[in-house]
Specification:
Elements (H helix, E strand, L loop, with lengths): L5 H4 L13 E8 H14 L7 H11 L21 H10 L9 E10 L3 E6 L8 E6 L5 E12 L14 E7 L6 H12 L12 H9 L13
Antiparallel strand pairs: 1-2, 1-4, 2-3, 3-6, 4-5, 5-6
């Protein structure tokens, strides 16, 4: 299981991964806050009577109900539908609404791979919580994840910063949304360091043999050089 990987064991320790250590800023929000932002937008538009498109979209990708995600749903605002074609159409046209309130954090390139991420945050997250992590790079992108562990490092951290993070979080990527995996893979490949070719050692015996193979100076005696 992912919890038993080296990443989990090193949650408080520095990484020994050969990738260049470089800090990268991230924004984090919960999946619940994203869904509630979509519902709030519906209400503002006067369409609170029907949020079936929101329900169909998120329940299809997470394979769970909005109630299980503890989303606050307006009363009598969901029209039940069992039409698979309608659900597929909803996926295609549905536009996600990102919450205005996000949690700032950061990670290091050495602590990010295709399986998951270790990152710092001022806010604690709970085990099993679904979150979205946005990578703040020139071509930013986001990846959905699930929190595995959250450790309070305030008393042991040696980080010197005006916004010193309090928590170190381990999360595994779940890839709920389209293109997330491809975008993450492209990013990791683009920052992978170029390692020089290893220097081949020449032992003394082979060096002596190569010197013996050199032509004798007398072989050039007939040449007027």
């Amino acid at each position: 299981m992912y919890e038993n990987t080296v990443m989990s064991a090193n949650i408080k320790n520095k990484s020994n991964h050969p990738v260049e250590i470089k800090k990268i800023g991230i924004d984090i929000w919960t999946l619940r806050s994203e869904i509630e932002s979509a519902i709030e937008k519906k209400i503002q538009q006067g369409n609170e009577s029907d949020i079936s498109d929101i329900k169909n979209f998120y329940e299809a990708i997470t394979d769970t109900s909005l109630e299980s995600l503890e989303v606050q749903v307006p009363n009598e605002s969901i029209e039940e539908t069992s039409n698979n074609e309608e659900e597929e159409a909803t996926k295609e046209k549905f536009q996600r609404v990102f919450p205005s309130k996000k949690i700032s954090g950061h990670s290091f390139l050495a602590d990010i791979n295709m399986e998951g991420i270790l990152f710092f945050s001022m806010q604690k997250f709970t085990h099993g919580q679904s979150v979205i992590i946005n990578f703040n790079i020139p071509k930013d992108f986001s990846v959905s994840a699930q929190v595995i562990k959250s450790v309070d490092i305030a008393s042991t951290s040696r980080i010197i910063s005006e916004t010193k993070p309090r928590y170190r979080i381990l999360a595994k990527f779940v890839y709920y949304f389209e293109n997330e995996k491809d975008q993450l893979r492209s990013f990791l490949q683009s920052i992978e360091p170029t390692r020089p070719e290893p220097i081949q050692k020449v032992n003394k015996e082979s060096q002596d043999m190569s010197q013996n193979d050199l032509p004798d100076d007398d072989e050039f005696g007939d040449l007027d050089l």
